[in-house]
Each structure stands twice: as structure tokens, then as C-alpha cells.
Amino acid sequence: MYELICIGASWGGLSAIGRVLADIPTAVDPAIVVAQHRHVDSHEGALGELLGLRIDRPVRDVEDKTPIARRNVYLAPPDYHLLVERGWFSLSVDERVQYARPSIDVLFESAADAYGSAVIGVILTGANEDGAAGLAAIKHRGGVAIIQDPIGAERRAMPDAAIAATVADAVLPLDAIGRFIYGLCVEVAKTA
Amino acid sequence: MHTEPSQASHAAMQELEDIELQLLLEGVFRRYGFDFREYAPASLRRRVRRRVHAEGLTTFAGLLDKLLHDPACMERLLLDLSINVTSMFRDPTFYLAFREKVVPQLRTYPFTRIWVAGCSTGEEVYSLAIVLHEEEVYERTRIYATDINESVLERARAGVFPLDKMREYTQNYIKAGGMEAFSEYYVAAYDGAQFHRSLVENVVFAQHNLVSDRSFNEFNVVVCRNVMIYFDKTLQNRVHGLFYESLAHLGVLALGHKESIRFSPYEERYEVLDSSEKVYRKVA
Ligand SMILES: C[S@@+](CC[C@H](N)C(=O)[O-])C[C@H]1O[C@@H](n2cnc3c(N)ncnc32)[C@H](O)[C@@H]1O
User: Fold this and answer.
1) Is there a single domain that holds both residue B75 and residue B107?
2) Which of A177, B169, B205, B233 has the smallest number of Cβ neighbours within 10 A?
3) Helices B41-54 and B4-32: crossing angle, nearest 10°?
4) Do B58 and B105 share a structural domain?
5) Which tens digits make up the pLDDT trace of B217-253?
6) Do B115 and B224 have their domain in common?
7) What residues in B contact A84, CB-CB < 8 Å?
């Protein structure tokens, strides 16, 4: 049983994230948490508003100690690191990691610590290497690693780095990722 | 399914690591008196793990062994665990809200006491002092600026901040409703921007540990931003109790942008002065 789906994206991430989330059917039950590199001055809530229009789940901006509830989508606030505890989120203002805050590595590694093999990690388009170590940590703890196929990605550096860092369970074009997650969370659960 | 055993062993591995981390924090507390037992575990685990690797070790238990017998190793861990990241006029809109919603109330007092808890290297205190000065209430204000960490307080007293930050701080200052030229407040010295001593004339910098120390005065304003995010919920609630006790009637509590008193036992005791800036007023 999966409990948490973590999605990380950078350059080109806004539409990629929107696409993946729109493709994940509502029957998929785990909480979904998204870290997208955003500019400090980015209009806060813009991502949330955009996603809220496109998907049929509650979309929330995380505050410190926000409880993690199934089916909800949680967005990392700009200029904080987002960390997963068992049952809730913590924020931190530690230094940037690889120039990024939120850092996808920090999110993924803490998710792996808190939920172990119940985590699905997804790396999408991006022009840096953030998330590669985090995805490897998820895999190391027995979770699932999904990577957007670099060939179709708006920027391929982030998927490439993730592929180099771990043995992915699936490398998929953007429009196949939601379907794959559905397979993991719903079909496999039914047959188990 | 054939993945069962490996999943079980992953779970066991995690459980073991949790036990080791708890023992380490307990050991550190009993041996050295530093109490991180109620800090938020995710960030703590990340930092302690970094120390494990840097010492050439593999487990938390191994690090505990070294920590217990080697005070120099404890010093290094302490550095890893102190997160002092701060800046001047961080979240400029907070200072704008402070000018508009808190200062008018302060004008009605003959004298105001402000507690800045977890002030780090002082950037926040100098920012607040500038605002109070421009609003012409600084003369009748005393700021108590505290932190657990004596070495950051030393730097706060010195009031020298990196020159290469001044551009960013100037922009923040303007967005925060600044009324002067920001460069009026410092002189560029060889080692940084030296802020004017007059800004800290009414400031007392002192060591205070939110985990174990008591309230030490009655305050009209408590500012505690981006400190309690490092605490777990139990400790957060205790510190909320400390602030509640320390505030005068109608005293103002200001938290970081992503913190709130929602879900704390003190929620009902405050009214919201500004919901997005996380500024509250004690009413009951
Ligand atoms: C990230 S800084 C925040 C600085 C500033 N308030 C700001 O928002 O920019 C956190 C500060 O909290 C201090 N701190 C951590 N634990 C504390 C404790 N138990 N008591 C007092 N201060 C503490 C740290 O030493 C650090 O300087």
C-alpha cells in the first residue's frame, strides 16, 4: 500500500506537473506532494490556483506541521525546504541545497525516511540535477522510482541525472506517468 | 508477494534507525545538556546523518559512541545543528504589516517592550529597529533579543553584515515601506556593512533557551519567526505557552509566514491581526 507520491520538477515543471496530476485518476488514494523550483518572488498560490482548476482533488499550500491527508495535493511553499514527517510536514529555512529551496532531494530523502517503501517518487523536467539523490534514497528504502523520459522532457538534465543515480522502475513519456501510477496504486492493490 | 520480505526488512531498518537517533539525542542531552529531543525529527535526522558521514562512520549508534567520548565531535555536531540562516527585512510584507497594524497600537503606550526570540545574527532586530525608528517610536521601546546560541549573539551585537547582501537588503527595505535611503543606516567598512550603533541603543542581546528557560519579563510584542518550525508539536505547544504567559493583555505575537497558532491550544486566546503575515493579538 502506497501512502505518499512525491513529484519533483524544475524548468518547464508547471505544465508537466499539471499534466501528470490531471492524469492521476481520483481513485488513486495516497497523498501527493509537489516540489517545484519557484522564484522567491513568484506569485504565491499561482501554481495552486492553476492546478486547482485542472484537477479534482483538494490542493493545499503547506504550512509548518500541516497534517498529511490522503488524496490531497500539497505544494511546497517557495523559499522553504519541505520535509516529510510521519503524518505531517515540517518546513525549514536551511541553506539552499544545490541552489534550490525547496530542494527536491530534501523532500524525497525525508519522505523515504518517514514512509520507506510506501513512497512513489517522480522526477520530471528540469535543467539541474536536483532530485537524483532523493530518488535514489526512495529506491534504496524500497519505494518506487519513476522518471520522465528525457527525450520528451522540456529540459532533460534532471531526468538524465535521476536515471544515472538509480535503477528506475519506469522511464516514461509524460502522458504515461499518471496511468502507471494508477496501475501501481489501484490495479496492483486490487489483485494483492 | 515476493517483495514482502524486503519490504519488511526496510521497515525494520527504519525502526532501528529511529531507535538509534533517539538514543543519540538522549545521550547528547545527558552527557552535554544540549536538548534536541523535541526538535522536528526530519531535519534533525538529515543533519545528524551528515555528521555520521563526515566522521567516516556508518550509523547513528557509531556517532553516539564517538560523541560520548569526544567533546570535539560534539562541537562539530553542534555546528551542524545550528541553523542561523536569516536576512534583513526577510518577508518585507511582514514589516509593512508591522508598520500599519502594530505600530499604531504601540504609539498609545508610554513604553514598549519587544521580545525577539531566536534572533540569530541580528538582521531581524536591526530591521525592526529601523522600522521603529522611522515610525518615531524607537525612543520609548526596549528590544530584548535572545537566542540559544551565544556565538550568533556576539555577531548580532557587532552589527556588521556582508556588504554583498546590501543590494538585496535595500530592495527588501523599500518593499518593507522604508522611508529613507537604506545606505544611511550603515557605513561600508573593510569587513562589511557596519550598522549604526544608535540602532541597538535600546536593544539587550541575551542568551535564552526556549526549551528550558522561563519567561523573564512582560512584553507588548513577541516576534518569533522561523524558529519553532524546527520544533516538534509538543515543544511548539510548550513554547506557545511561554509566549502566552509573557505577553501583556492585547500583546502582539508575530510568527513566520508559514507558521500559525492554528491547532495549538492557544488558538482561542488570540485574535488575528493579519492572517497572511501571521500576526496575532492576545485577547483572552
Ligand atoms: C533560522 S534562524 C531564524 C532567525 C530569524 N528569527 C529569522 O526569521 O530570520 C533560527 C534561530 O533559532 C535559534 N534557536 C534554535 N533553537 C532554539 C532554542 N531552543 N531557543 C532559542 N533559540 C533557538 C537558532 O540558534 C537560530 O539562530
Assistant:
1) no
2) B233
3) 80
4) no
5) 999 999 999 999 999 999 999 999 999 999 999 999 9
6) yes
7) 42
Nearest Cα neighbor of B255 from B231, A41, B131, B165 is B231
| CA–CA dist B144, B122 (Å, integer) | 11
Alpha carbon B14 to chain centroid, angstroms: 30
Which residues numbered 202-241 in B keep a CB inside 8 Å of some CB on A? 226, 228-230, 233, 236
Could you tell me which of B206, B223, B219 has the C-alpha nearest to residue B131?
B223
Separation between Cα atoms, residue B56 and residue A143, nearest integer Å: 27
Edge-to-edge order in the sheet of strand B192-195: B160-161, B192-195, B186-189
Active site residue A130: yes
Burial B162-174 (b: 16+ CB within 10 A, else e): eeeebeebbebbe
Give strand pairing partners of B219.
Answer: B247
Global pTM exceeds 0.90: yes
Where is B250: in which H helix or E strand?
strand B247-255
Say if residue B157 is in the same domain as residue B21.
no
Cβ–Cβ of A141/B233 closer than 8 Å? no
